TrEMBL record:
Protein's recorded name: Large-conductance mechanosensitive channel
Gene name, Swiss-Prot/TrEMBL: mscL
SUPFAM superfamilies hit by this protein: Gated mechanosensitive channel
Topology relative to the membrane: Multi-pass membrane protein
Segments traversing the membrane: 12-39, 69-92
Cross-referenced NCBIfam families: mscL (TIGR00220)
Entry GO terms, CC: plasma membrane
Quaternary context: Homopentamer.
Compartment list: Cell membrane
Length: 143
């Protein structure tokens, strides 16, 4: 039982998965910082001078009742950027690699070439006709 667990942990797939999670987490933090520092201020600028960005406060002087539309838009942009990068950097190249590998494996081994087939036909024809007709012309059968 412990050997199976050890084999599972030492397989290449689990290491690849761990690396992907770490890189994904770091990349998500990078995209979140980018959108919070650059995109969100641009979005908040559309709210006007008297409003705190693109937000709406339901009850005045109660910060817990603020609906922050900029944060929602920021999260959507973060998701779209992350999904696009993952798709175009990881998914598309891996699909192309898998297609290449799949086409290389699906090829059935070819039969003998036409030269070999022709030589086999000649061999079979000569083997069958020599026994039926006797010796070739000009050959002394007693020799």
């Amino acid at each position: 039982m412990l050997q199976g667990f050890k084999d599972f942990l030492l397989r290449g797939n689990i290491v690849d998965l761990a690396v992907a999670v770490v890189i994904g987490t770091a990349f998500t933090a990078l995209v979140s910082t980018f959108t919070a520092a650059i995109i969100e201020p641009i979005i908040n600028a559309f709210g006007g001078a008297n409003v705190d960005g693109l937000s709406y406060q339901l009850i005045e002087k109660n910060d817990a009742t603020v609906i922050d539309f900029a944060a929602v838009i920021n999260a959507i942009i973060t998701f779209l950027i992350t999904a696009a990068v993952v798709y175009f950097i990881f998914v598309v190249p891996s699909k192309k690699l898998m297609e290449r590998l799949a086409t290389g494996q699906e090829e059935e081994p070819e039969g003998p070439s036409e030269d070999i087939l022709l030589l086999r036909e000649i061999r079979d024809a000569l083997g069958g006709s020599a026994t039926q007709r006797g010796p070739a012309p000009g050959v002394d059968p007693t020799a």
